[in-house]
Input
Amino acid sequence: MKTKNLSLLFILVFTSAFGLAQNPSMEIASKNNNLKIRGIAELGFLGVLSHQVQFSNSGTYINYVNEGGQDVLFPVSRLSLELEIRERHTLTFLYQPLRLETTTLLVRDLVIDDLVYPAGTGVNFLYNFPFYRISYMKELAPGSEKFDFALGASLQIRNATIEFESTDGTLFRSNRNIGPVPILKFRTRYTINNLTYTEIEADGFYAPVSYLNGSDNEVVGAILDASLRQGLNITDEVGAFLNLRYLGGGAVGTSDDEPGPGDGYVKNWLHFMTVTCGFVYAFPSF
Output
């Protein structure tokens, strides 16, 4: 029943967007800019504010910053495409690679899914958590020349691989997971003048995983992806921006789907900050 209700919610949200393509009254003409496509790319660095993880109830609650080598900056990139329909409806597709690899010497024993990594062991840490996200937003202030406000929803696909391997190859644990994450979304923009604008955007959700996918797993998950952007319109087609982003979330609970080793309990909470420079290219309107 929970899965059915969730599916109906997203069908209602996205149908309004896809239904536009089948509306015979919708005229797509370049002179009216009814259909716009934008490509957006970001490049910068990521800093770990806080990141902790635990596998199995008997496992160690590991601090990645103090014990896992995540006390440095990491390169980060972000790619997205936006399809704007009649200045009222926007579809976006986002790809966010997120791969943190470190090697460090343990200062204490770590227990990961019933396997002990003794103090003094060199360990390779891999935290690979790229995600794909498709979103729909509807503009709620279409008549304003200075202010835009859009509200909608997203569906994110997580693709996680978390590994711990001793440098001599004798100790190894891996945790992998793929799954859908429904998210609420909003974006607002204030146009300062013809050259500059300020934009705030956020995707977020907090709920039991069993509510999201209809399973019996007692796992609570959350995500927040929020950004502040200062943009510059270089030409009609090309823009640039500086972006400050908070990326946080995680999950805690026990999953019955885990075959082992370990008892299926996981606690993983992260708080990242990114600073990026980006470019926007507006393709010719249809």
The longest helix spans residues 2-18.
